[in-house]
Amino acid sequence: MDTKPEVLLFVKAGGDGKRYGACPFCQRLFMMLLAKAHQQQLQFKVATVNFAKPPDAFRKLTLKRVPAIVHGETALDNVDEIIQYLDETFPSPSLDYDDADADKCCRDVFQKFCYYIKDVSKDSSQLEAELAKINDVLASRTSRYLCGDNMTHLDFELLPKLHQIRVAAKALKGFEISPKLRHVWGYLSRAYNDDLFTQACPPDQEIIVHWAEKPETPNLSMEEKARLAREAPKYSFDILISSP
Fold this sequence. Notes:
Radius of gyration: 18 Å
Main location: membrane
Family: Belongs to the chloride channel CLIC family.
GO molecular function: chloride channel activity
Low-confidence stretches: none
Keywords: Membrane, Transmembrane, Transmembrane helix
Strand content: 5-15%
Number of strands: 4
Largest sheet: 4 strands, mixed
Domain CLIC N-terminal: 5-92
Shape: globular
């Protein structure tokens, strides 16, 4: 008899109400649960939440936002609290890291992306500088990921954001991560070949529409949004340069 405790993860729903929406925090926790499920006596399910018509379980537990989890009598919708709870309840594998340089290089890249896509920054130079910092730290490593050969909490936080930068900045601003940043591309390539990333990743269309609907970002026409909604899900997992 299977007695594994089951965790229910609520994530943002995409435009069709079924596929995963473009929330990097939701993908982060999805990836974390996949990692825990590989080694722990852990099962989990993922449910999408459309806030216009949230699932009964989500509504009855008075959860307010996603990502959220339910495990037994515990229901949480704060990312930091969820991470702490999952690490304490399912400690293996450990996803902790102790690397000040790696932590520091990742700190501002998503903020600079937001400034750029919202035209707070008039050009991409600040975003490019942050990507170069990540590239330099990756270049100094021999490991597959930032802090070792397996993903840690830092990778779960950074990789969904890097992917959204890649997809949204190209679609809405014509920006592409420079091929000179070979170590960033190698890092993405390893993620694109890892089930922990690909199983939890939202489609390109959801990422593009998510950012197009933000205040002050380049918007899309209704026709373009309708076209993206009709398309089969697309995932930019291609790598256009050779990895280092």
